[in-house]
């Protein structure tokens, strides 16, 4: 039974997380003009002011109304900020709140949240409140939208004013073999989690899975490796692509990852958030979609790992007897473990985080880039929806999606964990996605 002191400690941590994430939302949007906030940089992304209003509406619905029993602030806002009724490409046409109104909405809802957090019974309250679950969900929701907002900002071609504060804080470089592989033995392991405090419903329940022996990259695929695919006509060789992948490739007419550009002299550069710099060959490749990852795997004679393979490499090991929260164990992520939390404004060179290695010695499985797996997004055996089907259940079984695992350089520590399951359309490149290959062992 939790003690009064332990409950107070949890509430103080949640209050701190709520404040930290809200400060980041305002810090991200502060340098932008009103036109920037309302502009839709790409049909794939929302106007940023829509995200601001949606964050407030989500928090209002779950904390003030579902938990606190209050009436709706404005029913029209529920309709406007419903992501299913309003797909991204139509959101710029909605009568959105302006910057001042959205900010006031965020502040008003947060004022109510602070009192509800104080009043809520985490022990004998409703299931939503047990151990602070719904508050954790709201924290993670805002963190995930911040990643989405960064994707939108990165699609703006010229963003000098915004990138003035984008300082890259990284550990010293370490010379490594970026082609090194780790062998994972065959056998059972525990996939998923029974965590009902911070894990989403699609991460539960924990269950035993058996995988055969395989090898996996120690590090995410680097720009150096991917450049070999580009310069050896990887985008022109239909034999490397699946039929669906080749259909995307010929329709999109691309020849390199998003943000890559080749000069007249043949030198490659990379643009992120309006900042152009020489392509860093030691960094993980980023902004590649599933089809590109799949074709690159064929080029190197490997394949994309399945979701269970990725998870075993991340949270298991020769001397590990239970699933780990993080590859390195149970210690909360620090700057020594992983490149997360928007600290570096891009991926870190491979080999930068040996302290963050898994029990098998696989590195940088959390941070830098999400990694494509070959697995469709399906429920685990025994899955139950909680607290709403629109987060996971409505996407299960759609062949257009594939699971991505890990975390990116922009992922908040609140979302970073081995069990987290991301998923997206196979054609998406604006997401912070990269590659790690696997190989069969016979």
Give an overview of the whole structure.
The chain is of the alpha+beta class. The protein has helices at 4-29, 34-38, 48-67, 75-80, 99-119, 133-154, 160-163, 223-231, 243-252, 290-300, 307-315, and strands at residues 181-184, 187-191, 207-211, 214-217, 260-262, 268-272, 275-278, 370-372, 401-406, 421-425, 433-434, 438-440. The chain has two domains: 4-156, Up-down Bundle (Four Helix Bundle (Hemerythrin (Met), subunit A)), CATH 1.20.120; 160-442, paralog of FGE (formylglycine-generating enzyme) (Alpha-Beta Complex). The protein is built from eleven helices and twelve strands. The strands form four sheets. Strands 10-9-8-11 form a four-stranded mixed β-sheet, with helices on one face. Strands 1-4-12 form a three-stranded antiparallel β-sheet, with helices on one face. It has a three-stranded antiparallel β-sheet with strand order 5-6-7, with no helix packed on it. A hairpin with a 5-residue loop joins strand 5 (260-262) and strand 6 (268-272). The termini are far apart.
Order of helices and strands: HHHHHHHEEEEHHEEEHHEEEEE
Total DSSP E strands: 12
Gross morphology: globular
- Helical percent range? 25-40%
Distance between the ends: 50 Å
CATH architecture of the largest domain: Alpha-Beta Complex
Profile the largest sheet. 4 strands, mixed
Strand order of the largest sheet: 10-9-8-11
Mean residue pLDDT: 94
Provide the fold topology.
Blueprint: H1 4-29, H2 34-38, H3 48-67, H4 75-80, H5 99-119, H6 133-154, H7 160-163, E1 181-184, E2 187-191, E3 207-211, E4 214-217, H8 223-231, H9 243-252, E5 260-262, E6 268-272, E7 275-278, H10 290-300, H11 307-315, E8 370-372, E9 401-406, E10 421-425, E11 433-434, E12 438-440
Parallel strand pairs: 8-11
Antiparallel strand pairs: 1-4, 2-3, 4-12, 5-6, 6-7, 8-9, 9-10
Helix pairs in contact: 1-6, 3-5, 3-6, 9-10
């Amino acid at each position: 039974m939790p003690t009064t002191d332990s409950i107070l400690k949890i509430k103080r941590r949640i209050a701190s997380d709520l404040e930290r994430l809200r400060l980041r939302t305002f810090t991200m949007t502060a340098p932008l003009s009103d036109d920037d906030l309302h502009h839709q940089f790409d049909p794939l992304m929302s106007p940023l002011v829509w995200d601001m209003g949606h964050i407030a509406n989500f928090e209002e619905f779950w904390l003030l109304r579902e938990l606190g029993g209050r009436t709706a602030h404005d029913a029209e806002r529920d309709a406007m900020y419903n992501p299913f009724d309003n797909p991204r490409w139509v959101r710029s046409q909605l009568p959105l709140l302006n910057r001042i109104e959205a900010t006031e909405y965020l502040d008003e809802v947060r004022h109510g949240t602070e009192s509800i957090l104080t009043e809520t019974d985490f022990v004998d309250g409703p299931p939503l409140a047990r151990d602070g679950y719904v508050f954790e969900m709201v924290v993670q929701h805002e963190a995930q939208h911040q990643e989405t907002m960064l994707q939108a900002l990165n699609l703006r071609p010229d963003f000098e004013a915004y990138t003035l504060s984008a300082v890259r804080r990284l550990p010293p470089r370490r010379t490594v073999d970026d082609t090194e592989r780790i062998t994972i033995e065959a056998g059972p392991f525990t996939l998923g989690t029974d965590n009902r405090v911070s894990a989403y419903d699609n991460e539960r329940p924990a269950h035993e899975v058996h995988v055969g022996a395989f090898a996996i990259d120690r590090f995410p695929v680097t720009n150096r490796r991917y450049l070999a695919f580009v310069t050896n006509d990887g985008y022109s060789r239909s034999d490397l692509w699946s039929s669906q992948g080749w259909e995307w490739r010929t329709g999109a007419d691309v020849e390199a990852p998003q943000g890559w550009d080749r000069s007249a002299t043949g030198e490659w550069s990379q643009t992120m958030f309006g900042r152009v710099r020489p392509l860093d060959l030691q960094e993980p490749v980023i902004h590649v979609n599933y089809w590109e990852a799949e074709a690159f795997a064929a080029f190197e004679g490997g394949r994309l790992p399945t979701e269970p393979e990725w998870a075993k490499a991340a949270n298991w090991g020769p001397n590990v007897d239970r699933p780990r929260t993080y590859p390195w164990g149970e210690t909360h992520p620090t700057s020594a473990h992983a490149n997360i939390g928007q600290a570096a404004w891009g991926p870190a060179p491979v080999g930068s985080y040996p302290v963050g290695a898994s029990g098998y010695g696989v590195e940088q499985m959390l941070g830098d880039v999400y990694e494509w797996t070959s697995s469709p997004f399906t429920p685990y055996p025994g899955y139950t929806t909680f607290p709403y089907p629109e987060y996971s259940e409505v996407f299960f079984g759609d062949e257009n999606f594939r699971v991505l695992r890990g975390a990116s350089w922009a992922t908040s520590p609140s979302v970073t964990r081995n069990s987290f399951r991301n998923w997206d359309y196979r054609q998406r490149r604006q997401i912070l996605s990269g590659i790690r290959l696997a190989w069969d062992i016979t």
